């Protein structure tokens, strides 16, 4: 058996642990393993396809990022190609990709990525490629699995930031607004905000009003707590509004959202008269060593992906359905977007202990 591994979309702590586990599991079966650089770029002549051996994956489980590198601009069904006049055009290169994989003797592919990468994998499966998926997203927004690797590390990074902001906020009686990742799903903001004892949590799934946020801040002020911590997901928007888009996206990329923290801080300061400061945690949430939980989950996913290849589970992805690792059809995982349920017990617990979601 000759298999290949690719990592696509945004990087996440734990990717290297998946690569290592999948590679070692495959070698243990006597298979040959190749690594495709930068998503599918290596199969399109835009980068390399390299051998993966026990030596090449030695000592990488604790490292952040991915030794294969990654991209969120590599959709082979709409590959961005720059024209002579400087403009960009999207070209379907999926047929070329499949042909090149066949020429390299690749019999199966393990595709590690989020919902975008999994959707691409499913389309390639429908064109005849034999693919097993591994869900990857720090946002935890892939359905069919309880959680994804990288999420725990991102939440831990956010909690560490909240802990540090508490001390400086209390020292100066300031309102601190921390923006975390979460374009469409607010899991990072919710989990870090509750764990870090934030006072207000704003997420895309629960539209909020500025007046309610300010009231929560002033209620603390009246009670003698002169500072406040607000955690906001980058995609959170006021009732009747939409998430803010920042800058220009590169060709083939999703829209860039964010900047909500700075605007929110200014609005709160203008309305309440309290000093407000903002901070954007940004890509720190994607970097660094994965937590022990993420290393373990990533390793389990990598081993399970190799087993799924052996079982011929084409068009399936591995998933955590506690306490077991199972496989589910990629189409099933993509059918319904995973979002924070406003009635979830974590949300209800937050409300019971006095955390505001700005909606009442």
What does this structure look like?
Helix 1 runs parallel beside helix 8 and helix 4 crosses helix 5 (187-195). Helices cover 35% and strands 18% of the residues. The chain has 10 helices and 13 strands. Strands 3-2-1-6-7-12-13 form a 7-stranded mixed sheet, sandwiched between helices. The chain has a 4-stranded parallel sheet with strand order 9-10-8-11, with helices on both faces. The longest helix is centred in the middle third of the chain and has 22 residues, at 151-172. The chain is elongated and about 70 Å long. The chain is α/β, with parallel strands linked by helices. The chain has helices at residues 15-28, 94-103, 115-126, 151-172, 187-195, 210-222, 260-272, 292-310, 330-335, 345-352; strands at 2-7, 32-36, 49-52, 79-82, 88-91, 108-113, 131-135, 175-180, 200-202, 228-233, 276-280, 316-321, 324-329. A hairpin with a 5-residue loop joins strand 4 and strand 5 (88-91). The chain has 2 domains: 2-149 and 290-322, Rossmann fold, CATH 3.40.50; 151-287 and 341-352, Phosphofructokinase domain (Rossmann fold, 3-Layer(aba) Sandwich).
Short description:
This protein has 360 residues and is an alpha/beta fold. The protein has helices at residues 15-28, 94-103, 115-126, 151-172, 187-195, 210-222, 260-272, 292-310, 330-335, 345-352; strands spanning 2-7, 32-36, 49-52, 79-82, 88-91, 108-113, 131-135, 175-180, 200-202, 228-233, 276-280, 316-321, 324-329.
